[in-house]
Amino acid sequence: MFNKIRRVFHHSSPFMRRCLILAARRTMSTQENPPGKILVEFSSPNIAKPFHMGHLRSTIIGNFVANLFEDFQHPVTRINYLGDWGTQFGLLKVGVDLLKIPDEELKSDPIKKLYQAYVAANEKAKEDEEIAANAREIFSRMEMEDTDDLSKWNQYRDFTVNELRRVYSRLGVHFDQYDWESMYRRRNIEPVLNALREKGIISKESDGKEVTDVDGKKVTVVKSDGTTLYLARDIAAVLDRERKHNFSQLFYIVDNAQSDHFRALFHVTQKMGINRQLRHVKFGRIHGMSTRRGNIVFLEDILNEARAIMKEKQLKSPNTKVNLTDLSDRSSDILGISAVIVNDLKQKRQRDYAFDWNNALKVEGYTGIMLQYTHCRLFSLAEKAGVEADESLNPHVLPQTLCQDILREIDKFPRVLENTRDSLEACILVKYLFGLCSTVSRCLKTARVKHEPSNDLKRQRLLIFNTARSTLSRGMRILGLTPLDRM
User: Fold this and answer.
1) Which one is predicted more confidently, 325 or 145?
2) Environment class of 470 (CB within 10 Å of its CB; exposed 0-12, middle 13-18, buried 19+)
3) What pLDDT, in 10s, does the model give residues 435-469?
4) Is 451 a catalytic residue?
5) Which of 337, 355, 368, 464 is most buried as measured by Cβ atoms within 10 A of its Cβ?
6) Nearest CA among 257, 288, 264 for reference residue 278
């Protein structure tokens, strides 16, 4: 089908090609060969620590990558791999006991309560070496055997996941599975470590550490006390996911600072004979993002701040052409989140950037608000048109001099998606959607619909504007936005 459409394109006028692209836009996005399964690991916060800006960028970019490959008809599994292991989690258990936090209190606000416990234990450990020694002992027991401490820890994790699901849903993000570092503790991954030893991939040093050689540099896999490091657990996770998912590609959405870790991981897995495509999708850091209450922020604090500032703009800009005064809390939330997401995704992925709330949430200019406003405007146009749009373009009814720019923009969309997929640079798609919105705005000034006397011409124009809206909606959803119909 795709090749047939292409042959017709080559033997048609430019205008007729744009007519054909309207009819074939969904067909052209499918692939003739069955696409391989994609795993995307993203967000991945640490239990009991603030949801820092790196986690926010990972969440936004990872959700975009997953949406993008789903749009190309790949089966996609979204994985949130939470940090819940290491000596610091022995310290956390000590902190919960120190503060005597009851289970009900933890259940009601687990992320912040566990963070308070961690901070309290950390402060105590600076004064009392026994606290730190106790934490190390707790973790060592948790690594090697099932204990009451481990059972309690599983409960804390359950509380945390329930809270994360609630906050992620507000952001418009979901995960197909939650994985934990503790799934790959020493006791569980001993067969993997034995395989690494047998293949000569890791070897023991005089101090008891087990290391692997990566480009002439020794990288520790198992510490001298026998406890595992992040690298060992990640190796085990790749093998586990290969067995469970039979994936073709696995994307890790993690910041630039972890490049050495992933270089070591890919080096080891390649030596083990794993021929799946593993890719570290790197990104830069956000500078200057904090709430007005301080620098320590959790994900919900960020979302609340975005909504609060949108509410302020409603009060301060009652006469703006974007009517914000009648928004519900949910709409304010969606607008604020849209602004934060687009502000991030319009940046080159690997560059650091400085965040400014006022710039991100501007009502006018190239922001997420612009995309939402244009979508609402096109929805309203169709609602008030008084006619149904035609199903296909008729060049004999629609003069070539009108709406040509919109047709050209729609014509670009499949190539924009391909370029976006190949580079995993969301800014390509964001820039395209900004251009589409600008073009629509210009055309709306000259190509009337509601007050056009000719019903034939009205239906043709409505078809073009509706197609622009569906293209915009599709692009917004790939970025992770929820398109609004009314503002």
Assistant:
1) 145
2) middle
3) 999 999 999 888 888 777 777 788 888 899 999 99
4) no
5) 368
6) 264
Question: Is 80 exceeded by the pLDDT of residue 361?
Answer: no
**Which tokens in the block code for residue 96?**
């919960």
49 a catalytic residue: yes
- Are 135 and 121 a contacting pair, CB within 8 Å? yes
Structure tokens at 280: 């570290």
Half-sphere exposure of 80 (CA within 13 A, CB side): 24
Q: Report the alpha-carbon distance of residue 140 to residue 145 in Å, rounded.
A: 9
Angle between helices 299-316 and 148-171 (to 10 degrees): 20
Which tokens belong to 398?
């629609």
Q: Name the burial class of residue 200, with classes exposed (0-12), middle (13-18) and buried (19+) by CB atoms within 10 angstroms of its CB.
A: exposed
Residue 52 annotated to the active site: yes
Over pLDDT 90: what percentage of the chain? 45
41 burial via Cβ count (<10 Å: 0-12, 13-18, 19+): buried
How far apart are alpha carbons 285 and 212 in whole angstroms?
29
> From the candidates 10, 11, 37, 52, which is the catalytic residue?
52
**What is the distance between the alpha carbons of residues 118 and 164, in angstroms, rounded to a whole number?**
18
Instruction: Considering the candidates 49, 93, 313, 346, report the single residue annotated as catalytic.
Output: 49
Please check the confidence at residue 358 and state whether its pLDDT lies above 80: no
Sequence-ordered list of residues with C-beta below 8 angstroms from that of 332, at least 6 positions apart, any chain: 307, 310, 311, 314
DSSP run (H or E) holding 219: strand 217-222
The residues, any chain, with a CB within 8 Å of residue 445's CB and separated by 6 or more, are: none
| Cβ–Cβ under 8 Å, residues 221 and 194 | no
- Give, for 63, the enclosing helix (H) or strand (E): helix 53-71
- In degrees and rounded to multiples of 5, residue 249 shows phi and psi of -140, 145
What is the model's pTM?
0.87
Q: Please identify which of the residues 55, 93, 346, 375 carries the catalytic annotation.
A: 55
Amino acid at residue number 476: M
* Amino acid residing at 461: R
Distance CA 224, CA 205 (A): 9
The DSSP call for residue 386 is: S
